[in-house]
Amino acid sequence: MNHKNVSAYVFFGLSALLAAAFVLTGIWAFGILAALALGFGLFRHLSRKNAPQPDDAQPVPLTRRKVGCAAPAFLAAALFLLCTPPMVLESGALWRYPFQRAVIGMYRNIKEPEWFPDFRKDVERDYHFRYLPGIMQGTGYYDVHFVTSPERAAAYLEQFTADAAETMPLAECSPDANSLRIDTAFFGENSSATVCILDTNRNENHPHSSAVIVDPDTGKIEFSKYG
Question: What's the CA gap between 155 and 135, in Å, rounded?
Fold first, then answer.
């Protein structure tokens, strides 16, 4: 390896690591930074390869000086993209969830609640994870829904009914009035699901709530943290 191109290979290595992080999490900040690192690496490699080498008595050519800005520019982009949580994240890939949870958990924002069970072994189909951080006046959420067996759904209903502050049929529940985030389209019309409200402040402007929605007849389950 040419020692004059070490910095280019550092960028190439960063690009590979960031690309792997993007594949594992689906978080676009990693994908953008991977592309930037690859671009900066190519820029440094080609600029150093093709530029004439100055002697000690000559000033550094402009091209070489531009190349020297690559590292600070990449660092600035990384700080900008990684110092805030992912602005929005939706995923239907269950295998990504542990990596997504780990990244989200690094920020002082909405993250997986402690009351979330280890649900992954119960997912049979229709898994979907949605996340939005709370930014300024915007209300964030952390939401998972999936379909499991009726038996497991019934067990979840028994568990969270015991832990709930109150329960009510989904057909009689107003998400806005109760400051809940519920994917009513997932459960469909005429659902027999039960809403287990673990906590809620019933504040439509600044909602904070935790709820589990379970339909034992269909096996549909939603875990919802709002605000």
Answer: 36
